[in-house]
Amino acid sequence: MGLNARTSEKIAFSLLTLSAMTVAGFVVVILAYIIYNGYSAISIEFLTEMPRMRMTQGGIYPAIAGTVYLILGSMAVALPVGIMAAIYLNEYAGENRTTWLIEMAINNLAGTPSVVFGLFGLALFVKYFGFGSSLLSACLTLSLLILPVIIRSTQEALIAVPNEYRESSLALGISKWQTIRHVVLPAAIPGIVTGSILSIGRVAGETAPILLTGAAYFLPRMPDSVYSQFMALPYHLFVLATSGTNIIQTRPLQYGTALVLLMIVLGLNIIAVMIRRHYRQKLKI
């Protein structure tokens, strides 16, 4: 005898609630572990000074600045290109073989390991274009890495905009581009910002691409141009935890670096969420 509808609904709701609480529990445990082990390393000196003594003393200011530069630089390249590509695929391109090939290429790029992007960036930007191991090479490589995420999220956001918006605008004699710019895009901004949040998290946490294109472990100075090498928190954390000087002695520094990286990503995500909420409230009005 099968379960009745009410019992099935209760079981399904319980399983979904358990799944959500399990995920939230893992996140809380990870955050609590990192905070517990890393808070002792956090200080004004740690956040604002240059590293000293092969990073066993001093701070991580260059790594913090380098990570922020990577996020801003890669998003400045990938966001406009990704949004324009998604607009073309969703609003202009018809369903044909060329579009199918582009869609397949985007799907394949989304599943490509990050180390492959790093090797590609090494061959193209570092060697072929002659940018060298630099902030510019790393930003361009990371922009390629997050491009599929931005394109896909923007496409989904554009698809979610009701066709009635487009039809009503076109019926008033407004051109297609003006309709996209003034009607469709504002309605899709919350979804586009969601894709940007995912991209920020991935850029901030990637190690392999920047390892091959410009990151340095110990560089006690700020990059003076886009052609300079730089420090970054994920690579810095990787070296500290695996092959740094006195790994056991620097354990608090490792957790402190991880905590700072989480705080940077969290802060940028909060800003993005506030922008998304602003536009959602604006659309309700």
UniProtKB/TrEMBL annotation:
ABC transmembrane type-1 domain boundaries: 64-272
InterPro entries: MetI-like, MetI-like_sf, Phosphate_PstA
A Gene Ontology cellular-component term: plasma membrane
Location(s) in or outside the cell: Cell membrane
Transmembrane parts of this sequence: 12-36, 60-89, 101-125, 131-151, 230-249, 255-275
SUPFAM superfamilies on file: MetI-like
Pfam family, one: BPD_transp_1
Keyword Glycoprotein part of the UniProt annotation: no
PANTHER family (alphabetical): PHOSPHATE TRANSPORT SYSTEM PERMEASE PROTEIN PSTA-RELATED
Family: Belongs to the binding-protein-dependent transport system permease family. CysTW subfamily.
Record protein name field: Phosphate transport system permease protein PstA
